[in-house]
């Protein structure tokens, strides 16, 4: 499984940005996909994830109500729509995948990772 995140950039606080994660896999629909982020000097943290069937999502409290994850099982893409961005959302964002048939989104234990994309929120 290979993943590639894209869509990062510079945005003003209060603005929006959509990240994309392209997944190369013959069994994409079997995977949970999650977004993580790592800010300078901080540990990597779970942002949100979506179950294999796209029906269940989970979010960190810090982004709940602002970020939305969606999964396209036809195009093998996962998106992270980020709205009302805050300065503290500045980080490198990574997408990750793990084969899992559960409908409970896992927040850890992902084996496959892509390169990150940098999101910078300015005042």
What does this structure look like?
- This protein is mainly beta and 123 residues long.
- The protein has strands at 2-6, 9-12, 17-24, 31-38, 45-50, 57-59, 67-72, 77-82, 91-99, 112-113, 117-122.
- The chain is 0% helix and 51% strand.
- Strand 7 (67-72) and strand 8 form a beta hairpin.
- The radius of gyration is 13 Å and the shape is globular.
Alpha-carbon Rg, integer:
13 Å
Termini, distance in Å?
Answer: 37 Å
The proportion of strand residues reads over 45%
Overall SS class: mainly beta
Which regions have little confidence, pLDDT < 50, spanning 5+ residues? none
User: Given the structure, what is the number of helices?
Assistant: 0
In this structure, how is the largest beta sheet organized? 7 strands, mixed
Helix fraction, binned, reads: under 10%
Following the backbone from N to C, one meets helices and strands in this order, namely EEEEEEEEEEE
Describe the global form.
globular
Could you report the average pLDDT, rounded to the nearest whole number? 94
**What is the tally of beta strands?**
11
Q: How would you describe this structure in keywords?
A:
single chain; 51% strand; 7-stranded mixed sheet; 123 residues; mainly beta
How would you briefly describe this protein structure?
The chain is mainly β. Helices cover 0% and strands 51% of the residues. It has strands spanning 2-6, 9-12, 17-24, 31-38, 45-50, 57-59, 67-72, 77-82, 91-99, 112-113, 117-122.
